[in-house]
């Protein structure tokens, strides 16, 4: 069976869209040439795809009803049992619903992917199962992961287990809620602007965005390769470090991975904070959207680290204030180029392409009116900047990102860790159905100033609950040098050992 060739009319339209003018003779010439040149496509089409084998048995599972989905956090329930032994034996894990689990439906928070069933396991899935974990299903995430709130997913809002009328954070909303509620031990999240750390902060759990590329992204739906991260979300530091030990390392299939260095992260636990040098970043506090009680609680947490023997100083990194600004063109133009126009995969990189997902994502063009408002705004900005500014600002932002990274690295040359609030605010109320439409956008993007810069620079950063205020969690973020996750875990473990963070 041959691959469909363009008709003369289609070829003429294509030529005109690329600025070419074809005479009738030109059209006949190029039509014959295109038909002949496409013969290799027929051979490629007939060959089997080169995909990893699926090795662990599983059943399709089911979408749980309200009686077993209290916080609307389960996208799908299914059980896949891993190896008979391993470091994660006895641990239950839920996957963010942008991660491929073969044979189990995946929606990525949207009706656009409804009916899609992956035909492969993401690398992180295989590693979890090889380590003995039991995967319990898929967690709700925000519509194509484009929200820091928990209100844009097609199944409806995910409710915060600590205060159900409030946001659980996003875009790994269900992952955080299920861990916080104690329904699973561990969760996989994804993070392009803070989507592991934001829901961890709002929901009072631990979320690690490792160094860019440390955890392979293979088999996870991308947004933009230079800011894509995936990583562990847990109720305690030890589980987080253990999970990262299982997940980390090159797989040879992900172009995000370069010079990957792994450690025995659990060996950092119990070492205490004495001797660590911690820099409080002044520009992470007192923002226009900052809540004073959040700043106060995080500064108190820093004092507790000092009480454990760490050296704690305040420093200024002026460029941090530009971090979210630099992130914006990279994220918005990048997502439009790769995730939307590129059908989730894009081109120009070596590795594993999830072709079945690519085919499904392409269907958004026939259902564009159904996309979320947060995604539509992001797409409009990205497409306008690409068409009318030639991608200039994406390119310039990537150039500026090197300066941003250097600014952090200059301080990290003298300090082990940077410290600031994970988010400048506590969890917000979920937007009311039928309420002001602008609330949807505001609640989706207002919390990004401290998290998004480290997606741009790729530094490891972890959300650590450090207290309660007005009945809601407050979270501090620790940032380390590239591949300095062990240092973060050392400090986080020492802080955790001080006692229940809810009483701080």
Radius of gyration: 23 Å
Q: How many helical stretches?
A: 15
The biggest sheet, with number of strands, parallel, antiparallel or mixed sense and barrel status, is: 11 strands, mixed
Terminal Cα separation, in Å? 67 Å
Average per-residue pLDDT, rounded, comes to 97
Secondary-structure class: alpha/beta
What is the CATH class of the largest domain? Alpha Beta
CATH topology of the largest domain: Amidase signature (AS) enzymes
Structural features:
504 residues, alpha/beta, eleven-stranded mixed beta sheet, 34% helix, 15 helices
Protein model, in words:
The chain has 504 residues and is α/β, with parallel strands linked by helices. It folds into 2 domains: 8-46, no CATH class; 66-503, Alpha-Beta Complex (Amidase signature (AS) enzymes), CATH 3.90.1300. The chain is 34% helix and 13% strand. The protein has 15 helices and 11 strands. It has helices at 8-17, 24-37, 39-46, 123-130, 173-180, 197-203, 237-247, 292-307, 323-340, 355-361, 373-389, 392-412, 438-445, 453-457, 485-496, and strands at 74-81, 92-96, 134-139, 186-190, 206-209, 230-234, 277-281, 311-315, 417-421, 461-469, 472-479. Strands 1-3-2-4-6-5-10-11-9-7-8 form an 11-stranded mixed sheet, with helices on both faces. A hairpin with a 2-residue loop joins strand 10 and strand 11 (472-479). Helix 9 (323-340) packs across helix 11 and helix 9 (323-340) packs across helix 12. The radius of gyration is 23 Å and the shape is globular.
């Amino acid at each position: 069976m041959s691959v469909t060739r363009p008709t003369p009319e289609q070829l003429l339209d294509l030529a005109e869209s690329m600025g070419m003018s074809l005479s009738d003779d030109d059209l006949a010439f190029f039509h014959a040439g295109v038909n002949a040149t496409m013969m290799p496509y027929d051979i490629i089409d007939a060959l089997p795809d080169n995909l990893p084998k699926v090795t662990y048995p599983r059943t399709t599972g089911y979408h749980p009803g309200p009686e077993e989905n209290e916080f609307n956090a389960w996208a799908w329930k299914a059980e896949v049992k891993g190896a008979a032994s391993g470091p994660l034996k006895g641990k239950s894990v839920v996957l963010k619903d942008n991660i491929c689990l073969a044979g189990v439906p995946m929606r990525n928070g949207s009706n656009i992917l409804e009916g899609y069933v992956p035909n492969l396991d993401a690398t992180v899935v295989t590693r979890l199962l090889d380590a003995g974990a039991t995967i319990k299903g898929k967690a709700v995430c925000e519509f194509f992961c484009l929200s820091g709130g928990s209100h844009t997913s097609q199944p409806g809002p995910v409710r915060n287990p600590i205060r159900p009328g409030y946001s659980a954070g996003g875009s790994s909303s269900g992952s955080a809620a299920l861990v916080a509620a104690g329904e699973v031990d561990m969760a996989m999240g994804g993070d392009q602007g803070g989507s592991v750390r934001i829901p961890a902060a709002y929901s009072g759990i631990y979320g690690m965005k490792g160094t860019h590329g440390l955890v392979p992204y293979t088999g996870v739906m991308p947004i933009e390769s230079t800011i894509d991260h995936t990583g562990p979300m847990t109720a305690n530091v030890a589980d987080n470090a253990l999970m990262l030990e299982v997940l980390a390392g090159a797989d040879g299939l992900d172009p995000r991975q370069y010079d990957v260095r792994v450690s025995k992260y659990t060996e950092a636990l119990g070492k205490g904070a004495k001797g660590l040098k911690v820099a409080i970043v002044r520009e992470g506090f007192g923002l226009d959207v900052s809540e004073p009680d959040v700043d106060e609680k995080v500064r108190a947490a820093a004092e507790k680290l000092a009480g454990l023997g760490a050296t704690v100083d305040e420093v200024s990194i002026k460029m941090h204030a530009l971090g979210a600004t630099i992130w914006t063109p990279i994220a918005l133009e990048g997502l439009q180029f790769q995730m939307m126009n590129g059908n989730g995969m894009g081109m120009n990189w070596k590795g594993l392409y999830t072709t079945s997902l690519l085919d499904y994502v392409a269907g958004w063009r026939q259902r564009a009116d159904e996309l979320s408002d947060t995604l539509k705004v992001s797409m409009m900005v990205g497409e306008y900047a690409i068409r009318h500014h030639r991608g200039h600002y994406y390119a310039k932002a990537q150039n500026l990102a090197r300066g941003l990274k250097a600014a952090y690295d200059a301080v990290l040359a003298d300090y082990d860790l940077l410290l600031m609030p994970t988010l400048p605010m506590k969890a917000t109320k979920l937007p009311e159905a039928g309420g002001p439409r602008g609330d949807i956008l505001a609640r989706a993007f207002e919390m990004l100033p401290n998290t998004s810069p480290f997606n741009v620079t790729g530094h490891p950063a972890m959300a650590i609950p450090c207290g309660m205020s007005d009945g809601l969690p407050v979270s501090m973020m620790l940032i380390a040098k590239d591949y300095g996750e062990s240092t973060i875990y050392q400090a986080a473990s020492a802080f955790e050992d001080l006692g229940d963070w809810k009483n701080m």
